[in-house]
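Researcher: I'd like a structural prediction for the single chain below. Treat it as a standalone chain; there are no partners to consider.
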Amino acid sequence: MKKINFKITTLCTVLFLTVIGTGCKDFLDTELQGVYSNSSFYQTKEHAVFAINATYEITAFKNINNNLWVFGDVASDDAKKGGNPGDQSDMGFIDEFTINPDNGFIESIWKHYYEGITRANKVIYYVPDIEMDNGLKQRIVGEAKFLRAYFYFHMVNIFGEIPLKTQPAFSSDDLHVPVSSVADIYLQIEQDLTEASQVLPVSYKSSETGRATKGAALGLLAKALLFQEKWQPCLDAITSLEQSGYSLMPLHRNNFEFSYENNVESIFEIQHLTGQVPFLGSNLNQWFSPQVENGYFFNAPTQNFVDEFEVTGGGVIDPRLDYTVGRENQKWINGEDFDPAWSPETGYLQKKHIQPLSEIGTGTKGDGDLNYTFMRYAEVLLIKAEALNELGSGAEALIPLNEVRKRARESYMFDETLPGFGAIPAGLLPDVISTNQSTLRTAIRHERRVELGFEFHRFYDLMRYGTTTAEAALSDTNFNYATHRYFPIPQSEVDTNNAISN
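Model: Treating it as a single chain, here is the predicted structure.
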């Protein structure tokens, strides 16, 4: 049974938190019962907990406003839009890089994540003045700093130069904020995560599972430093993170199964819960499922992605492919044969965010309770390998890289459904042995793609790899690195924020 009690108060409080500071008295002679203003809220410990819970709510995939997968997968070479032709055309424009500032998916994620930043800013500003247990107070502020960094990390990777807002808006003038440089956004991310890591606990009691931990702050810090090519500070953050005791699960696919949620590999996992009022479920289950299961079959894996997986001379393929992708002549998640017709655009569907019908039936397809894991220990190992290689320590870089590969090939020792279970096929995913920096860089990038595929990371990776790699990967689209490195700031923001010029 899921132990995520803190979420149940999250959406229950959003109903009034979203109207804080909107000036209800300007429109009504009688103040609404149950509605708080900034002057009456942030007074008690309960208010502080409600406010941080409402900030977590923004991370959930409960509606299409949190369309992170469009920017992480569909925009990349891993996926095509999928779905019916003409359905969600704005997603298709992103897929093909024929993008206008009024694109609905750009507008949605901008508004959604800035709402998260706004909520985090209010927690950070107001909670320190509440009379309550000091340890809990520091932890809540630390959680808010982690979440603010999480939102800004995605925003800076999607949009580049954006307004940096670190306090609540106290007047209409405060809504007009100019863009800050990418470097300055990252500096704020680093500061927030460093401060959060100093106050967040290593773990929580089961009823608080899903809150940001010290390891989550250090993991995201390491990733932010990696993206800036700050190799040694990145390794320093990982050294601290490794003291928290994370490890790889025996099977890669366990990380995407309901019964193994919040496991020893999970560093930050976004919680979902089905059958709740207000709604607490994940709609990814419906967006990615085939139509025969009442799904929309979007985010369809490409042949290029499938071809990335290694195959032995005897024809045995990396088992992570079938843990990630539904394909012809293989079993789908319910146990039936996969039908390529379920995905007309590519012939493939992704599996990592879909639950079998035995868990979530067709009638409640959009109310899944499978969590989304933003960061796993496997990614930390690959970050470590990359940083070590870029510092010229190729022999050391091989250790974490090969740990990930070892787990993948040893699927045959733990997964009874694999043909030949009990013996690792000859030549399957051998250890990488080259310490040549360029060769090893290619091997690490390959491993990131197959290990983390369809976890919404690929587009960010392509962009940080630079012009040559990105343009080659997206050569079948209209992508041009100089033009499309970042998505345009939404037209609605340009129209309403006087500090941003066209």
